[in-house]
Amino acid sequence: MLRLEGAQLNYGSFRALDGITIHADPGELVVMLGANGAGKSSLFLAISGLRKLSRGNIWFKDQNIAGRKPSQIVQAGVVHCPEGRKLFPEMSVRKNLLLGAYVHRQDKKETQKILDQVFEMFPILHEKRNDAAGSLSGGQQQMVAIGRALMGRPEVLLLDEPSLGLAPLVVKQVLGVIKTINDNGTTVLLAEQNAYAALQIARRAYVIESGRIVMEGDRETLLNDERVRKAYIGA
Amino acid sequence: MNIFFQQLLNGLTLGSVYALVALGLTLVYGILHIPNFAHGALYMVGAYAAFYFVGTLGANYWVAMIGAAAVVALLAVLSDRLIFHRLKDAPPLHDMIAAIGLLLFLEACIQATWGAEFHRLAPPYPQIVRVFDLVAPAQRLIIIAAAFGLMLVLHLFLTRTLVGSTIIAMAQNREGASLVGIDATKVSILTFAISGALAAVAATLFSPINLIYPSMGHLVIMKAFVIIILGGMGSIPGAIVGGLVIGFAESFGAFYVSTNYKDIIAFALLVLILSLRPQGLFPSGAR
């Protein structure tokens, strides 16, 4: 479904991604584990076209999408829900969600259907649909960000640190929703520092350090690995 | 009462023209974070384009206005594609230097074509309108009506249409807009085109009661910057309110204080308001 081969990304003389090779199969939920600054966000920014790779390829359904514009990548079916949410703070929740379906603007019927599904998934957003997105709590804003990404009808959903800064109860709710999205058939690539919680819903994970993949394995392997437990689970 | 009304009318006329120019400036700033000093030159080219359409081609005033808007919109888009877009990864200082360079280039081109002397666009509506005891030149009323009409259309376009929403979305969060599939290049082209068209319309409206000359954009762009700083950089309501504040201040200041200080008033107000409210009147960005 999604495959990166030897992805290299530089910020000036700093190499943020150093030959990353990963893949996500159709319907998989794959977790990217790593500390702050390890390269998780850079990886997602490169996949969604906001940063250009200096070397390597990004294959999505047998098409190389490296170098394409972000709008073309969304159109192709890869949608990125970024760290920090990047909402339109002064627009209403409803307008934020509708703009998520911008690339499908001709198909109003389907957009309305997905909007209803998002409101069903997050009832609080329906209640606050006319409120400015910037006036919502952190957890609610995260729901808007995930909802907005779903409005883009993703085949692959990139979720960057969706639990960052949220209360434990909200984290549980958000991860539950991510699991549901994946169960409904969307391939999910999830970047998380909250390794234990993320591994509960994932089948497979990569560990990224200093822009390189240092470990790969299924949930059980990583949960039982001493280094992972020490570095990311704290046990 | 009559004199007060006269100043009110003058203030509204000046304010609505300033607001149109400032709106274009603030739209480009809100979206691309470019302080476009060349915007004053676009205003000046708009005046010359209207002057050419009416004076040389014999076009109707309103047709000339549309023609000038189209010419300046195209010029603004070209300035984006050929200059500002290429500098998108450069330090902000490069944008400013490029904008000043463009301003000087356009002025030199106009001066080479039409010379440095003053021109005047013949007033299309020289009549005087009388209502009860009050007297108003028709052109001033047209300026006010057309400027506010255009602001209303712009407001409806930005808030009620999907294309308009993409401009607002880009202003509120550029990366967020790209991530939902909004094409930053298209938004940028559209924003520059609107900004240029607004400058040209403002110039065509104001030219029949003002003079046309190559450096006519200098004071206007300085005041437009004062307005968008007062109103809050990137804020659309801020540009309108700021434009009116400066327009009324100049008009009443010129009458009740002295016409010699007319142009100083805007800058004195800038210092005063920013001392009390450094974030401007509407600080939260474009809406």
From TrEMBL, chain A:
GO BP term, pick one: L-amino acid transport
Which stretches make up the ABC transporter domain?
A: 2-235
What keywords were assigned to this record?
A: Amino-acid transport, ATP-binding, Nucleotide-binding, Transport
Protein name per its UniProtKB record? ABC transporter ATP-binding protein
Q: Which family does it belong to?
A: Belongs to the ABC transporter superfamily.
Pfam families noted in UniProt: ABC_tran
Q: Where does the signal peptide begin and end?
A: none
Specify the species.
Microvirga aerilata
Q: Which CDD domains match?
A: ABC_TM1139_LivF_branched (cd03224)
- What molecular functions are annotated in GO for this chain? ATP binding; ATP hydrolysis activity; branched-chain amino acid transmembrane transporter activity
Q: Which Gene3D superfamilies match?
A: P-loop containing nucleotide triphosphate hydrolases (3.40.50.300)
UniProtKB/TrEMBL annotation, chain B:
CC per GO annotation: plasma membrane
Highest taxon listed in the record's lineage: Bacteria
The molecular function GO annotations come to: transmembrane transporter activity
Q: Any transmembrane segments, and where?
A: 12-32, 37-55, 61-84, 96-116, 141-163, 184-206, 264-282
- Keywords (A to Z) from UniProt: Amino-acid transport, Cell membrane, Membrane, Transmembrane, Transmembrane helix, Transport
- The residues forming the signal peptide are none
GO annotation (BP), single: amino acid transport
Where found, per UniProt? Cell membrane
Task: List the InterPro entries hit by this protein, alphabetically.
Answer: ABC_transp_permease, BCAA_transport_permease
Entries under Pfam families matching the protein: BPD_transp_2
Q: How does it sit in the membrane?
A: Multi-pass membrane protein
Its family? Answer: Belongs to the binding-protein-dependent transport system permease family. LivHM subfamily.
What protein name applies here?
Branched-chain amino acid ABC transporter permease
